């Protein structure tokens, strides 16, 4: 049995679909099973990564774990899973981490949270695989309201390029790591096939949607304020803005060969991703 955490989110849900396609038995950990909306063949267990007592029942009969959490507490969540996994029959944890978790010079919050989470896993007794993606292509879904309202993409750091990766490719790497031998102890840095600025992403979206779109560079302050309006807490908004600012650094443009190496097929382009999500952008 494979336990998938983050099952209601972008990557976790794609991991579930990938495992079901291989007829693997899947259990999903969810804080609110009643709203999880997962396929019927998935066993859903109520648990919270922040509540250690809830994890032993969730791990009963589980041999592998896909581990994903978010926010300032995520390293505690990782440590909680490791502690519970050590007392169960789990023999492999695949953690969704962050592109710069391995770079000690990265002192902004999100890589630091993940670095601490990775450390907890490495110090535990369960074999692991770390999956470290760069920015997700799906972050462009945040542009839907302004595209629908005003054919405009508003985003900061217009000079920055990120080799954004399709969450489906992240999930494909995670699924391979869970179901195949030979991935234990590996660290997978993941990117998409091409570094893109927000303006270049806007041009691709315009082609895919079949109408002109305008890119407007916003200030970091405006972008942070929009996140607060959207309901993101101040600590998380600051952490996301610090991470976004790194788009101006060269490492975000590096194209990694890992998706192809692990899955045997090239990573999907931003155009492919946009075509798959076209309906969500249309009015
Ligand atoms: N976006 C990017 O560009 C990017 C780049 C690199 C790495 N990452 C990393 O990717 C992860 C986010 O992945 P995602 O976008 O797929 O996630 P997401 O769609 O934001 O979903 C988050 C998931 O985590 C679950 N979760 C949060 N707190 C939990 C808790 N206390 N107990 C149990 N479950 C909990 C949520 O469950 P509920 O349904 O209960 O809320 C949800 O299923 C983060 O670790 C982030 O740092 C993101």
Question: What report would you give on this structure?
Answer:
41% of the residues lie in helices and 14% in strands. It has 283 residues and is of the alpha/beta class. It has a seven-stranded parallel β-sheet with strand order 3-2-1-4-5-6-8, with helices on both faces. A two-stranded parallel sheet has the order 7-9. The termini are far apart. The mean pLDDT is 95. It binds NADP nicotinamide-adenine-dinucleotide phosphate. The site of NADP nicotinamide-adenine-dinucleotide phosphate has 27 residues, from α1 and α3.
List its traits.
283 residues; alpha/beta; Rossmann fold; 7-stranded parallel sheet; 12 helices; 9 strands; binds NADP nicotinamide-adenine-dinucleotide phosphate
Task: Provide the spatial order of strands within the biggest beta sheet.
Answer: 3-2-1-4-5-6-8
Task: From the 3D structure, determine the CATH topology of the domain at 2-135 and 166-191 and 252-267.
Answer: Rossmann fold
Strand content: 5-15%
Give the low-pLDDT segments.
none
In the CATH hierarchy, what is the architecture of the domain at 2-135 and 166-191 and 252-267 at level 2?
Answer: 3-Layer(aba) Sandwich
Say which CATH homologous superfamily of the domain at 2-135 and 166-191 and 252-267 is assigned. Answer: NAD(P)-binding Rossmann-like Domain
Q: What's the β-strand tally?
A: 9
What is the radius of gyration?
19 Å
Name of the CATH class of the domain at 2-135 and 166-191 and 252-267: Alpha Beta
- Report the bound ligands by name, code or SMILES: NADP nicotinamide-adenine-dinucleotide phosphate
Total helical elements: 12
Q: Report the principal-axis shape.
A: globular
How would you describe the oligomerization state of the chains in this entry? Answer: single chain
Structural class assignment: alpha/beta
Query: Approximately how much helix is present in the residues?
Result: 40-55%
- H and E order: EHEEHEHEHEHEHEHEHHHHH
Report the average pLDDT across residues: 95
Let me know the largest β-sheet.
7 strands, parallel
């Amino acid at each position: 049995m494979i336990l998938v955490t983050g099952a209601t989110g972008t990557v976790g849900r794609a991991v579930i679909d990938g495992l079901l396609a291989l007829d693997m038995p899947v259990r999903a950990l969810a804080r609110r099973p009643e709203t999880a909306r997962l396929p019927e063949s998935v066993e859903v267990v109520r648990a919270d990564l922040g509540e250690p007592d809830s994890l032993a029942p969730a791990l009963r009969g589980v041999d592998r774990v896909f581990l994903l959490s978010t926010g300032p507490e995520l390293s505690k969540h990782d440590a909680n899973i490791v502690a519970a996994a050590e007392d169960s029959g789990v023999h492999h944890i695949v953690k969704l981490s962050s592109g710069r978790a391995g770079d000690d010079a990265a002192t902004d919050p999100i890589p630091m949270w993940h670095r601490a989470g990775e450390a907890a896993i490495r110090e535990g007794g369960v074999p692991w695989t770390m999956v470290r993606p760069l920015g997700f292509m799906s972050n462009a879904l945040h542009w839907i309201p302004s595209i629908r309202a005003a054919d405009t993409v508003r985003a900061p750091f217009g000079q920055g390029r990120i080799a954004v990766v399709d969450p489906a490719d992240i999930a494909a790497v995670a699924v391979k790591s869970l179901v195949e031998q030979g991935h234990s102890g590996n660290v997978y840095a993941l990117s998409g096939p091409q570094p893109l600025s927000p303006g270049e992403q806007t041009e691709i979206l315009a082609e895919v949607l079949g109408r002109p779109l305008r890119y407007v560079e916003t200030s970091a302050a405006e972008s942070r304020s929009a996140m607060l309006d959207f309901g993101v807490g101040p600590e998380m908004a600051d952490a996301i803005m610090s991470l976004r600012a790194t788009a101006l650094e060269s490492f975000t443009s590096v194209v990694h060969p890992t998706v192809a190496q692990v899955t045997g097929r090239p990573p999907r382009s931003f155009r492919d991703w946009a075509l798959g999500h076209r309906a969500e952008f249309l009015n």
